[in-house]
Write a structure and sequence with these properties.
Length: 331
């Protein structure tokens, strides 16, 4: 038998085995899929509304990452239920690298706020890369004349205080709750479809305050419609160097870390995660992207995928413990 005929017969046998025995050559097919990834358009879901901090930062990274990978990354907003609707869609997608989740720290708050969500935030999704930390800034309508966090608390102690959020269990909700609990004040939660919608009502005086990412708040502050009182990070923000932190303002344990980053469905092949992590990390260090992120108030938070997953696990446990200890009701 000549060499050509042997190759034809071997190829035919392999094809027959693959047809008659589904999964007969899973290792080879899997390896080939990874080697050619990405070979088509990638979808990236943002579980919050357009114009939200998570959306703006996610698009900066996704728009630049697509050309690096050689494929278009289509960003889709699928908001609702504190980010769990969009997150569930990604968690239930194929783990093949073609569906990404661009989320924020609301991801690790979801199990505490939505214990019956149709996915497990800790096991159904894997962390890839953190884009950075964005300071939540507590803002009030400029016309109110409130100049400090203490003045806001004094007003709240008189009753009838309200605060806006981008939805139950969102980072904006969680940051405000952390401050409220530390200050020992009562305030009615007014959830919105997204952060921009809540900000508009705070600026109009229909809601008293909001703790939102600096990316979303900046245009309102620069336009003189909102006054920043404090940031919820442990250190002051480079975007607002003259604004104190909530801890500096006298409210212990009121800090909240609002990270933004990329996740993928669990069981996504390690080589794909490694490439996404490596290319995104390099991209964020380029002057052009680093400058764009800095202008949004993003502070670097370099973590490996394993470190990112460990952070999520710690936050999930801590958030559940806080909800139980404080008796918070998110419904």
């Amino acid at each position: 038998m000549n060499a050509t005929r042997r190759r034809l017969l071997c190829g035919s046998a392999a094809a027959t085995a693959a047809t008659l025995l589904p999964g007969a050559l899973p290792g080879a097919a899997h390896a080939q899929a990874q080697a050619t990834w990405p070979s088509k358009t990638i979808r990236a879901i943002v579980p919050f509304t357009p114009g939200s901090t998570t959306d703006v930062i996610g698009r900066i990274v996704a728009d630049a990452l697509g050309p690096v990978l050689g494929q278009t990354i289509l960003v889709e907003n699928r908001s609702g239920a504190g980010g769990t609707i969009g997150s569930a869609a990604v968690a239930q997608s194929a783990a093949d690298g073609y569906t990404l989740l661009l989320n924020a720290s609301a991801h690790s708050a979801a199990p505490a706020a939505f214990p019956n969500a149709p996915y497990n935030a800790g096991t159904d999704l894997q962390g890839v890369v953190v884009f950075g930390v964005v300071p939540n800034v507590i803002v009030v309508q400029a016309e109110r004349g409130i100049k400090s966090l203490k003045q806001l608390v004094d007003m709240a102690q008189k009753g009838n205080m309200t605060f806006a959020s981008a939805g139950i269990g969102s980072a904006t909700h969680w940051a405000a709750e952390r401050f409220r609990l530390s200050a020992g004040i009562k305030a009615e939660h007014v959830p919105y479809k997204g952060g921009p919608e809540g900000l508009a009502d705070v600026a109009a005086g229909r809601v008293d305050f909001m703790a939102i990412g600096s990316t979303s708040a900046l245009p309102f502050i620069q336009g003189g419609r909102l006054v920043p009182l404090a940031v919820t990070t442990r250190q002051r923000s480079s975007l607002f160097p003259n604004i104190p932190t909530t801890i500096e303002s006298g409210f212990a344990d009121s800090d909240y870390t609002f990270w933004n980053g990329m996740l993928v469905p669990a069981k996504t092949p390690a080589p794909i995660i490694a490439r996404l992590y490596g290319e995104t990390t390099k991209l964020m260090k380029t002057p052009a992207i680093a400058e764009r992120l800095a202008k949004q108030g993003v502070e670097p938070m370099p973590l490996t995928p394993a470190e990112f997953d460990a952070l999520i696990a710690r936050e999930i446990a801590a958030n559940i413990a806080i909800v139980k200890a404080a008796g918070l009701k998110f419904g």
